[in-house]
Design brief:
single chain, mainly alpha, 24 helices, 572 residues
Length: 572
């Protein structure tokens, strides 16, 4: 195959895979009933309060929206460990679709017809736990909420979720453009080889890690975090090859400040970014006689504090802890981490918390937290470990200040913070569960690169290709089966009860695996027609991209053999 044909096929692969993940994300939104995305009741209440009232929700005083609470009486909401019907007069999916037809029709009208007057924030009775978050995501989405609050619940949810998912999907797009920029800017054979694998990793990330969709295709601030992180990654790549100028320091500082004003996760990310550039610049200071190293650090730090410092200062002033996290405030009030661990720590809880973190990164469920048996989730956890191990193995060919080390620099303090949160939960409850791995998807730009780099190292080995292919096929099969299970779950044909977190199937499913019945029922609470159309379109696009990428991977093996077995990225 000549070079022009190779590049043409590679570009086709990028387009097909990106469009495929876009359509699958839209299908997830179309199938997902209102409030089934993680914490959407609290996120929506926060959004309403800041858009309608212009005030920030604060810990212990913030209340849920009355709109959210009134929904219970018309249509189903996510399952809890206590059945909602017993808890607050509401419906589960199962009880709703077993109710009389006139009640189902009432639910349809409530979800799909416009309200008599635009929705507006009015205080309910329950507390809003998402008041722990900084406000940037909700400020950005406020104009969208205000422009859609006169629409039906279904239409408004679809639009708000779609905007959020586009934030996250754009993160993959920006990561790909960053790699393409390097190939164009520094087109050595070794650079081109590795960056093509990075692009491959980014493009197949949503296919390999299906928890991407329930995490990002919902109302929630993680999608904006992913976009900001991708922009930081793109700036890093440009600064790595063209030097960290004052202007780039300003841009990175602004982005980090905006990240810290979106979610507390950006605190460890900020520490990692500043540490990387300080060491990187000092390493080249004598060679380049750089006079901007310390000035750049001061600029970044100043902008971060200027943009987001006020929010953390208010938390420290009001609660004695800077992060505003309910668990951190409770921990402080109970005497601190060591006191709690002295009473409640166990190695079993510690290991279980970290195992749950890994598995929930592989598959995150939706807010009802219904899932298949653990035997089917275990391979998804193996995929997570597989990606991490391969990436770490690839680092031995690079210096610690090379750009390929940047994901490790950022991930290390972030993973430490998650591990610390496991300890916090043990100190508070005696259990380590509740630290959710799906949050790592906000790192999609650098972690997608990790996937590609890990594959580049071992793909020439036949056994490695076989293992990767088996895991990849399992991820695809899992995605298809779990999509079917979720459709039947939302339509009440499969259900969850009480503390039993696993899917429970009826003695006999309706014909054709229950899909026609699920379609009929879902028309009451979601948009299954749009969901099926976009799911099939996305599936065709992704299948086509997989066929192309398999051929490309064989060509990349030849490229590696022809260009040496240990390519190292060249740059500064």
């Amino acid at each position: 195959m000549n070079i022009s044909t190779h590049k043409y096929n590679y570009n086709i692969f990028i387009i097909l895979s990106l469009l495929g993940s876009l359509f699958i994300g839209i299908s997830h939104i179309a199938f997902l009933p209102p409030w089934e995305g993680f914490d959407e009741t609290a996120h929506y209440s926060y959004l309403q309060q800041i858009a309608d009232i212009g005030t920030l929700p604060r810990y212990q005083t913030a209340l849920m929206s009355k709109d959210v609470e009134d929904y219970n009486y018309y249509a189903p909401k996510p399952y809890t460990n206590i059945p909602p019907f017993e808890k607050n007069g509401g419906y589960t999916y199962k009880s709703f679709f077993e109710s009389p037809p006139e009640l189902q029709k009432k639910g349809y009208v409530y979800i799909h017809e416009r309200p008599s007057e635009p929705r507006r924030y009015v205080e309910g009775t329950g507390g809003n736990w998402q008041s722990q978050h900084p406000p940037l995501y909700y400020i950005i989405l406020s104009p969208v909420y205000l422009a859609t609050r006169h629409l039906s619940w279904g239409a408004q949810f679809f639009i708000l979720r779609l905007i959020s998912y586009l934030f996250a999907w754009s993160a993959i797009l920006i990561g790909v453009f960053g790699c393409l920029w390097v190939i164009k800017r520094n087109s050595s054979a070794k650079n081109e080889y590795l960056y093509k694998w990075m692009i491959l990793g980014l493009c197949i990330w949503p296919i390999f890690m299906p928890s991407w969709f329930p995490e990002m295709a919902r109302i929630g601030n993680d999608s904006l975090c992913a976009l900001i992180m991708a922009l930081i990654w793109f700036c890093f790549i440009k600064a790595y090859y063209d030097n960290l100028t004052i202007m780039r320091s300003i841009v990175i500082g602004l982005l980090l400040g905006l990240g810290c004003l979106t979610k507390v996760f950006f605190i460890p990310i900020t520490i990692a970014v500043l540490s990387y550039w300080l060491i990187h610049q000092l390493r080249f200071q004598n060679e380049r006689k750089s006079e901007y190293t310390w000035i750049s650090m001061v600029i970044m730090t100043f902008l971060i504090v200027l943009i987001s410092g006020w929010w953390y200062f208010e938390n420290w002033q009001d609660y004695g802890v800077p992060f505003g996290s309910a668990s951190m405030i409770q921990l402080k009030n109970q005497g601190g981490l060591l006191v709690g661990l002295k009473e409640g720590f166990s190695s079993t809880a510690f290991l279980r918390g970290h195992a749950a973190f890994i598995v929930s990164f592989g598959w995150s469920c939706t807010w009802s937290l219904a899932r298949p048996p653990y035997i089917y989730l275990a391979p998804m956890g193996i995929i997570v470990i597989f990606i991490f191990f391969n990436y770490m193995s690839s680092l031995r060919h690079h210096k610690v200040t090379d750009i390929v080390w940047l994901p490790a620099w950022i991930l290390f303090p972030l993973l430490i913070s998650f591990s610390y949160h496991v300890l916090v939960l043990i100190a508070l409850t005696g259990e380590g569960r509740g630290t959710n791995g799906w949050y790592l998807h906000l790192m999609v730009a650098p972690i997608g690169v990790c996937l590609g780099l890990g594959l580049s190292l071992g793909w020439r080995k036949r056994l490695f290709r076989q293992i990767t292919s088996v895991l990849f096929l399992y991820a695809i099969t899992f995605s298809v089966v779990i999509s079917w299970a979720q459709l039947l779950f939302f339509s009440g044909l499969i259900y969850k009860s009480g503390t039993n977190k696993f899917y429970q199937l009826p003695a006999e499913l309706p014909r054709l695996l229950g899909l026609p019945e699920a379609y009929t029922r879902l028309k009451i609470i979601a948009y299954p027609t749009a969901g099926f159309i976009t799911w099939f379109l996305g599936g065709i696009l992704i299948l086509s991209s997989i066929i192309i990428v398999w051929k490309l991977s064989q060509e990349l093996i030849s490229d590696r053999v022809g260009r040496g077995t240990n390519p190292v990225i060249t740059g500064q």
